Amino acid sequence: MHHQQGETIEIQTWAELQEVLYRDSWNDQLQRFRSGYVYRGLEDKSYELTSTLNRLGESHLEKHLLRNFRKYSHKQIRSEYNSIWNWLALAQHHGLPTRLLDWTYSPYVALHFTTADFNRYDEDGMIWAVNYVDTQAHLPDQLSLIIEEEGSHIFTAEMLERAVDSLTGLSHLKKDDFAIFFEPPSIDDRIVNQYAVFSMMSNPNRLLSDWLRNRQVRYFKIIIPSHLKWEIRDKLDQSNINERVLFPGLDGLATWLKRHYRDVRLEQGQKRDEPQGSPPASPAPPSQSS
């Protein structure tokens, strides 16, 4: 079936959603369902693919942020994390503004982040799906060679380190902007359980969404209508895709339980009675870091 590049798909039911999430996942060569896509869930369909560094609005501060992060955290970090790419992943993981964007191999984990904040259930959400295999055609030669030698479709920090050991060096590998997808080291259970992948632009001021428009890279967007969010949320919880699993520890457990025992019937009654501009019933739970 022919799909339009960059298509925005509006679904209305849980059943439709299942079909769309796994589109283009059949691999004819392997005769298996092996998707080349990564997914990113957004609670609001109006959100752009902006990194935390983009939202900071000061990309020139990136090297200063990283330098000081490394300086003050050295005692807590094992020596094998010395690669700049491991440091970048670690900084992103702990909330430092970076050029990285969080993605996941799991469409259900992306759905979790689309429905994690129940104070935004009146907004349509969105899932971005990008074919990371297609992005390899736009890599600089040095990085293409490493991917070919490894027989891999995605980078690790160690693979990137073989070609380039600095952010400045990355931008000098090729005149045109390019995107890289790489797997972070297994820093903790959160990285592992979220089936995490990072994307990174060679130019930190360039949005991946803008770059994709002019490239032969398959991608699509799914609009998650607000009326479907509670059904998705409850079915994900039943499938064990929730904060208790994705954010191991007491904070994730407490956030999951708070939602699990939330009585939406009371809130529906309050919405009818409350004046406009009333504060939300409770604070938002943790969501994707970027």
From TrEMBL:
<dbReference type="Pfam" id="PF08867">
    <property type="entry name" value="FRG"/>
</dbReference>
<feature type="domain" description="FRG">
    <location>
        <begin position="33"/>
        <end position="128"/>
    </location>
</feature>
<feature type="region of interest" description="Disordered">
    <location>
        <begin position="267"/>
        <end position="290"/>
    </location>
</feature>
<feature type="compositionally biased region" description="Pro residues">
    <location>
        <begin position="277"/>
        <end position="290"/>
    </location>
</feature>
<dbReference type="InterPro" id="IPR014966">
    <property type="entry name" value="FRG-dom"/>
</dbReference>
<protein>
    <submittedName>
        <fullName>FRG domain-containing protein</fullName>
    </submittedName>
</protein>
